[in-house]
Amino acid sequence: MKLFDMQGKILPKFTSSHIIYSYKGVVKAGLQFKDIKVDVNENSKTVYVDLPEPEILSSEIDNDSLEIYDEKYSLLNSPKFEDFNESIGSVKEKARESAIENGLLDTAEENAKKLIETSILSLMGKEYTVKFN
Predict the structure, then answer these.
(1) In whole angstroms, what separates CA 85 from the centre of its chain?
(2) pLDDT-derived band of residue 105, with 50, 70 and 90 as boundaries?
(3) Residue 122: CB partners within 8 Å, gap ≥ 6?
(4) Are 61 and 23 in contact (CB under 8 A)?
């Protein structure tokens, strides 16, 4: 098997390195509560709530969960610390994208609605209706 660089030149053997690893991580999503707008119509006993768009609040990796499955270092091209940091950034971004694709933002919005509705009804009374715009 021959390896080539970006210019198409053949690389000598022992110039390829790789690491296969996994991490556990957490992606958190939610709403900025300071941006919620509430309007109360006392006549109709209706509370109108305008929510901001849900957003990813953080994407975190548990460094203690690192598991290395396979690693191969070449004599001429060993991985650098910068490469590893760049890889972690990529892992965080992929976790973020995957969480969005799997409906995390929708779940965050639904959870916020339940929390807000429960809070409003406990403060205002069960005779009120909560409507989200």
Answers:
(1) 18
(2) very high
(3) none
(4) yes
Rg of the chain (C-alpha set): 25
Reading the block at residue 47, the tokens are 């509370």
Q: What is the pLDDT of residue 72?
A: 63
Residue pLDDT, tens place only, 107-116: 999 999 999 9
Mean pLDDT of 34-46: 97
50 phi and psi angles, rounded to 5 deg? -110, 115
pLDDT band for position 127 (cuts 50, 70, 90): very high
Helix axis angle, 81-101 relative to 104-124, nearest 10°?
A: 60
Question: Which residues is 55 bridged to in the sheet?
Answer: 30
Nearest in space to 124 (alpha carbons), one of 31, 36, 32, 39 = 39
CB-count exposure of residue 23 (10 Å: 0-12, 13-18, 19+): middle
Exposed e or buried b per residue across 98-108, where buried means at least 16 C-beta atoms within 10 angstroms of its C-beta: ebeeeebbeeb
